[in-house]
Amino acid sequence: MPKAAEQASDSCHTCASLTRFPKSLVEQSSEDPPDLVGISYVADVLKRNRQLILVVRETVTWYTSTCFIKDEKLGSLRDGLIHLLIPLKPLNGPSVVVRVDPAPGFCPLCDDSYLKQLNISIEIGRVKTQNKNPVANKAIAELEDELLRKERSHSHLSENTLVIATTRLNSRLRQRGLSSRELWTQRSQFTHEQLPISDMNLIRAQHEARSKNHGYSEKFKSSRPGRPTPDINIGDLVYLYTDRSKTQSRDRYLVVAHDGEWCFIKKFSGNQLRASSYKVKLSECYKVLNTVSAQQNPRYSPNVYNQESDSDDHNEDSLHGPIRDLPPDRAEPPPILICENIDDVENLDEPTDQHDTSLEHDLTLTNSSTEQDNKRVLRKRSELKTPARFKDFISF
Predict the structure, then answer these.
(1) What's the superkingdom here (predicted)?
(2) What is the model's pLDDT at position 161?
(3) Confidence class of residue 294 from pLDDT cuts 50, 70 and 90?
(4) What is the CATH number of domain 2-26+229-287?
C-alpha cells in the first residue's frame, strides 16, 4: 500500500507543482568572454528614494556610467542608454551588445531601429534563471555602497552627488591591482602615465578566475550533491525547481526542442500553450513519471483488447471464477387482518381455547368481494385519562 501511494503521488501533476525540494548543488557556468574591450556591456535600473538611476557597466574593465531617468518606459530607457553608451564607443566602430533583464521596458528595445542605426543591440537574459544579469547586480550593489558613504541621509540625490559617487566607484582598486578607470584608459589615475596592459591577457585572466571560482562557490552555497540530469525528450511535461514561491505553485511546461544539456520549453496557461519559449538546463527541470503502463493495467493492453474483439463466443470455463448463487427469495409479509367489529379486536387480546371461525369467515369474504377493499383497519382505542396535575380540579 505505501508503494502504491508513492507511485500515485509521483504521477500527480498537482503534487509535483507543490513539492518542496531541499537545496542541492547547482552547477555554475560562465558565458564565453568577449573578443575585445568595449563591446560588451550590462545595464540595470537602481531605485532609491523614488529616484531611478540607469547603470551601465563594461563587462571586462567594470567601468561604470550612470544617469537619472524619469521612468522605466521605452523612451526613457532608450534615451538613457544612448546618453551613456555613445561617449564610450565610436559612432562608426564595431557593434556593442548590452545585456539587460527581461523587464517590460527593455524587451521592446531588442527590435528598436534607432538603436540598430547606432550599432547598439540589446540582449535579454535568460528568463527562467535566478541570476539573469550578475555583473549588473554587482554594479548596483557597489553603487549603493558608494552612495551611502557619500550621503548618509535618505534625501534626494543631485546630479553632482551621483557623478562624484560614480567617479569614486571607478577609482577603487580591483583584485588585479588596478582600478576600473586605469583598465579602461590604460593610464595611471595618479600620474596619468601609460600602463603596459594587454587586453587579451586581461580577458583571459578574468575568464580563468571566474571558472576557477565556480567550484568553491557551488560547495559554499550547498553541501548536498547535485541533482541527476533527467531523461527528457521532446513532448514531455516538465516543471522547474526554482518556479515555486510562497504564494504560487509551479507552472507546467512542454519541451519543444532539445540541444545537448539545454532544452527549450513553452509554458501552459490553463489549457493554452504560450508562444514564447524559454531556454533552460536539463538539470533545472524535472518531469512527472507516468506509472500507468500496459503491464500494470491490463485493461488497456492491446493483446487483451484483440482477444476480446476476435472471440465472440464466451464459454462458462473462460469466465473468471464461479458464478455466484442467486439470493434467496424474500418471505411474504403476513396478511393484514381486517375486522368489521371492534369487539373482535378486543377479544384477540384474551386467550381462548376455542378456534374462532368468524375470523376466517371474514377473511374469506374480504378476498372474494371487492366491496371490502376500502375498509380501514380498526385498532383498539386507548382510554382517555386525566393528567395527574389536574386531579385536584373539579370538572363540570
Answers:
(1) Eukaryota
(2) 93
(3) very low
(4) 2.30.30
